[in-house]
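Check out one such.
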Amino acid sequence: MFERYQFLNSEECRRTADAVHALRTHWEQRHAEAPFYTLGAASYLDATDPAARKKCYYDKAARLNPLLEKDFEWLYAKLSKSLAEHLGGACAFERRAGRPGFHIFMPTPLFRQSIASIHVDLQYQLIDWRDHPHPDFEKPISFTASIVLPRGGGGLHTWDIRYEKVRGLPIDEIAKRVHSTAPAVHRYVPGGMVVHSGHTVHQIAPMPDIEPGNPLDARITLQGHAIRSEGTWWLYW
C-alpha cells in the first residue's frame, strides 16, 4: 500500500514546528558532516546493537517519551485517531518503545545530493514484542507526516522491488536491481501524511533547490511505524 491524505492544516504544522524548535536542546545530530537531527528515540538508529539496546534505545525512550507526550499530546491524539480511521483498527503507542518522532534536516549543500540510504523498513525486528501476542510482521506500516518542507519541496523515492521478493538475496544482487531502474518520485505536501508498508525499497529524496542556511528550506517530518497484534496497531519509532 502507498496511501496519501491531508493530516495537518497550516496552523497545526506551524504549531508543531514551533514546538520542535523549542526542544532544540534535545535534538540529536545523526550525520557527522551535515545538520541532520532526530528528536525522539529512533529504533533504526538507536536499537541496532543488541548489547546496547536497553541503554541506547529503551532508556532513551523512557527519558524522551514524557517530554514528547507533554509537548505533542494533541498531535499524538490526532495521529492515533487518523491512523485508526485509515488502517481500520484501533491504534495505541507501544509502551516501552520510542514515540513517533521527528527527522530534522537543516539546509546544507550536501542534502542536494542523493545521499540517504536506500532501504526497507525492518525496524520491527529490533523491538521487543513480548507484550503483544502474535505480532503480524508480514504487514507492517510506516508513516511520514510533513511538517515543514523546503520551498522546492521534498519527497520519497521508491523502487518497484518488494522485500518479500528479494529476501535472502546477496546485497550486490539487490543493489544491481535497484540501480538498474529509475525510482518513482512521490512528492510530499505540507501537512500531508504518507502511509506505506515499508517493505518497498525506498529512499528520502534529495532536495536540489535548497538554499544553504535559509530556514525556509528546512525539512521536518513526523516519523513512525506500526505493527498489528490482536486487532490493535501498536505505534512506535
